[in-house]
Recover the amino acids of this structure.
């Protein structure tokens, strides 16, 4: 159990377009989901915490108007990169927890975004 | 602000060798510490999770220890195999229940 999927696994887009990434908990209900970004050969950096039915909490330095997060159900959170630019190219990974933020986070396989 | 450091950044060993990966953190007020494995271009696989009240956890050839007071954890891999080649990430859950990751150790086990 505790499988998290992401779609798409990779995406290439032109500068200025918007890209939506989905994160789904397949066999459990996730009260909270997290979005991370990982640049090449660097570690994961938390971007935001997403709670079902409420606004996401963004980490310092992350633009909430650029990275739109929607957690409409207990099994789905989406991250939309608006007006993407080459510097947004990165590996985006989500994680989900069952009950509270102290629980084990189950990670998705990641989405590779390349902005041309 | 919690900072997590992993040493070494990269490691290359011959097959069969026992090895130790190190992780240190600056704030001892952690909820738990977790070791992950990441293969190139892939997501994370959780290896071991140590609660703040625990000293170590074991799973197969892996053993992780935690010394919260000194801000250190080690991941011990016994009898390394080429399939162990990956990046190993250490992460602490801080007092606000957020995971703070180290930059990882890239391990190569040579046949």
């Amino acid at each position: 159990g505790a499988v998290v999927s992401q779609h798409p696994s990779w995406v290439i887009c032109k500068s200025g377009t918007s890209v939506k990434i989905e994160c789904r908990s397949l066999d459990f209900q996730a009260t909270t989901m997290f979005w991370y970004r990982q640049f090449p050969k660097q570690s994961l950096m938390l971007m935001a915490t997403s709670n079902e039915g409420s606004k996401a909490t963004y980490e310092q330095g992350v633009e909430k108007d650029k990275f739109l997060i929607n957690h409409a159900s207990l099994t789905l959170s989406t991250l939309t990169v608006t007006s993407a630019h080459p510097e947004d190219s990165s590996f985006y990974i989500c994680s989900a927890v069952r009950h509270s933020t102290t629980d084990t986070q189950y990670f998705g396989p990641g989405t590779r975004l390349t902005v041309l | 602000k919690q900072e997590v450091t992993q040493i070494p950044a990269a490691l290359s060993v011959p097959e069969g060798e026992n090895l130790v990966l190190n992780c240190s953190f600056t704030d001892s007020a952690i909820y738990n510490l977790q070791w992950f494995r990441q293969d190139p271009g892939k997501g994370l696989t959780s290896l071991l999770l140590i609660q703040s009240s625990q000293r170590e956890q074991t799973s197969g050839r892996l053993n992780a220890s935690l010394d919260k007071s000194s801000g250190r954890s080690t991941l011990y891999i016994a009898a390394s195999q080429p399939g162990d080649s990956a990046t190993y990430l250490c992460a602490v859950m801080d007092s606000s229940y957020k995971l703070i990751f180290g930059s990882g150790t890239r391990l190569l086990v040579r046949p």
User: Anything to note?
Assistant: The first strand of chain A starts at residue 4 and ends at 7. Chain A has a mean pLDDT of 92. The CA atoms of residues 89 and 114 of chain A lie 5 Å apart. The radius of gyration of chain A is 13 Å.
